[in-house]
């Protein structure tokens, strides 16, 4: 069973994530769960109390959940989703958004994000960053303000040490028209044997049964900068990369390149562990 989970707050970027998930579902015969998480108590309760009518608290909260479900039902009945198996789910929670989301078992999470920078990144980061860090399945984060998202050119960031994730990604990105560009970032932190890297890339391509692909070694001040610069240079539609999924003190001191890319990229990013 292939299940795609799409969290939404009905923002424009989250609805674009649903459109991308719909395309992937068609190519993979997958079902979609469109999920909206309502954290209790919600600011939405103010809608009921602002009407000046005495409404019991439980009744008001039920109204919030019912209204949210109606909105999701309206979204999934759009003719463009005809023929797809999409289930609208509204879940109430007293926890944070990420914890509730990750309780749902999925084979792929597709979500929209506007990213996070500066103080927000330092003290909390984006929802997408947290999901990428903790998810046990691939996460596709939709970014930017494109009117239409089409995955035709994919930048695969590789260190030639963790390559199994690429095969997992290909199971979802099974579109014959996709052009793959593999990039190894040289940040001058260690001596690089360029010829050995090219031979390693040939072995990876053979393992993945790739006939047409591109491979570049990119100079960058750091890994994140190199990935983002090379993605813009080739006009990539998607960045594909491995994540260690570090948590706790390990994450605080070492961080995650994938999470940084998710926060700062204006290009969609797919991460796998």
TrEMBL record:
Residue intervals of the UspA domain: 1-143, 202-271
A Pfam family that the UniProt record links to this protein: Usp
Superkingdom of this protein's organism: Bacteria
InterPro entries assigned to the protein according to its UniProt record, in alphabetical order: Rossmann-like_a/b/a_fold, Universal_stress_UspA, UspA
Family: Belongs to the universal stress protein A family.
Name of this protein: Universal stress protein
Organism of origin: Flectobacillus rivi
